[in-house]
Amino acid sequence: MRKRKICVITGTRAEYGNLRWLLEGIDADPELELQIIVTGMHLSPYYGNTYKEIELDGFTIDQKVEILLSSDTPSALSKSTGLGVIGFGDAFASLKPDIIAVLGDRYEILAACISATFARIPIAHYHGGEATEGLIDEPIRHSITKMSHIHFVAAKKYQERVVQMGEAPQTVHLVGGMGVDSITRLQLLRKSDLERQLGFRFGEKNLIITFHPVTLEDSTAATQFNNLLDALTELMDYKFIFTKPNSDTEGHQISTLIDRFVEQNSNRSISFVSMGQLKYLSALQYVDAVVGNSSSGLAEAPTFKIGSINIGDRQRGRLKAESVIDCDPTVTAIKTAFKKLSSPDFQQRLKCVINPYGPPGACEKSIEILKSVNLSTILKKKFYDINSLT
Description:
Strand content: 15-25%
Oligomer: single chain
Number of helices: 15
CATH class of the largest domain: Alpha Beta
Largest sheet: 7 strands, parallel
């Protein structure tokens, strides 16, 4: 019997971290053939050529689709998306996958799904139905949902939202968050080993800081990040680990500000273009909070029973655990958030936090569906009208 070919596409370090165990599961299944396409930041020297991490994990990359340009302007991202449509079209013609599997909401993945739609290849989409109301990712994610045929969602609310968008309920599968699988499967590093690999000694109090541009706002990245840095300068008893932003508009501005801050505070701060999943998740064991506006503060940090300070609108609309402190991107609001983080009452409540993205198991559940779903008529979708049911 011919193996079903599942082509997994990844364009960023964080996305690959969430997909890694899916790749392992597909590769180990005798009924499936794994194909991997890497694109975007993975192929950029500026972002660390992280495709090498995929290869070091033992995977074979079948195709590389070059789309990332040196600029992070809106016109550059449009050109990158166009290049992606062309490149993925050629890759799919060569690999002829039965299903492509994609995660999230970035422009690289949009390009892949446009090409797959033209090539009449079924699309399996992870983490649909979520909301990030401050980002261009929001309409991209929902566009991918409408192009997709198999939906793997992280929470019941997101399942309901995908159905509300006209997707048939039998195609929308509640499997949980992909990031939770990584936390439970990885052998996380001991503090001494992590410190040696990072070249950084943890202090009594520590923060991981990741701040991305809010892409539906114009020219706010530098101002908002400077406000965060102003608040950090008063935390004299903390040490800081910065991870640099993705290839979003205005991302280079934030990276430059990080470099300047770390240079001026080299005794208590360090920065990374990419920590890698193992070191990043291991670090979450030894920090007091995740600060900024990364999705990891919502999806992974609650599992470690640590706080998250979520600044601004980038993650507005997403489900959040009680460990998440929302604040405006002003110096005063950020300082107030830090005061709440350190309060005895909040620290006590962290011990009982439940991650809304569920227990592990998303990979196993979704692989069984990828193996068994009937592909003979899957491309001919019918709009599921919830109003006709009332």
